[in-house]
Design brief:
Elements (H helix, E strand, L loop, with lengths): L8 E2 L2 E2 L7 H12 L13 H11 L4 H46 L5
Antiparallel strand pairs: 1-2
């Protein structure tokens, strides 16, 4: 397939998920719409990624940079999922739409 990137799987999680179920889309939209209190967490990052984050945001704003990047990434996944869902709906109706268009074109006649 041209234009498709083959993404690797880490611990069983695809880095670029495909079409999300309507329930997962709704839950992701709900979660991204909230701005709850911060929760302390621990994540492991490669040393060069950590240094790059510190270079851009500084150590005091590292968490804010990571949160912003993750929020943007999740919104991009949501957008791609909606786009794929829309394309699937359009494709499902394509045969009917094309047949209707062909019928209408068949009814047209050139003036004599």
């Amino acid at each position: 397939m041209l234009g498709r990137t083959n993404y690797t799987t880490i611990s069983g999680m695809q880095s670029e998920p495909g079409l999300l179920s309507p329930q997962r889309v709704a839950e992701l939209e709900r979660l991204l719409g909230k701005h709850e209190r911060k929760a302390k967490t621990s994540i492991s990052l490669s040393a060069e990624l950590l240094r790059a984050a510190d270079l851009i945001a500084g150590t005091a704003q590292r968490s804010a940079l990571i949160e912003q990047a993750l929020r943007r990434h999740l919104k991009a996944i949501l957008r791609r999922s909606r786009h794929q869902s829309d394309l699937a709906a359009i494709d499902a109706q394509a045969m009917v739409t094309n047949r209707e268009s062909d019928d209408l074109l068949g009814l047209q006649a050139w003036p004599e």
